[in-house]
UniProtKB/TrEMBL annotation:
The keyword Isomerase applies. It comes from Paragemmobacter kunshanensis. The keyword Isomerase applies. This is Ribose ABC transporter. GO terms for biological process: fucose metabolic process. Signal peptide: none annotated.
Amino acid sequence: MLKGIDNRLNADVLRVLRAMGHGDVLIVADTNFPSDSVARATVTGELLRMENLTCAEAVQAILSVLPLDTFVDDFAGRMEVVGNPAELPPVQQEVQAEIDHAEGRHRPMIGIERFAFYDMARQSYAVIQTGERRFYGCFMFRKGVIPPES
């Protein structure tokens, strides 16, 4: 255990979150996403796991240490529901609430078409697989910066 660090963040996840730079993309995925095969194509080349958590729980822990990119509109994204891209299933609503909480205001995620999401995931820095079993629990986060102290 470490003081001030969410205990849901394991050493592998912390290592990768720390190593990422401004603009690097992180994927947080449900159990149905082809996480292992996609993760092999990422910068890290390995799958990270937070498999005892739902997507919202994992995102809450991740956003406790990961700043989101405030310079771009695509700071966070969600896999669109096939046939109904505007639909926000409960799992996506829960993750949006965690983003809003971390940012202190409502900042909506962009929608990303399913196959475009797969392509983005393969080009990402890392993939974290959660224990989420609900469909469309697949998200993208772009790392931001931490400003200097005033």
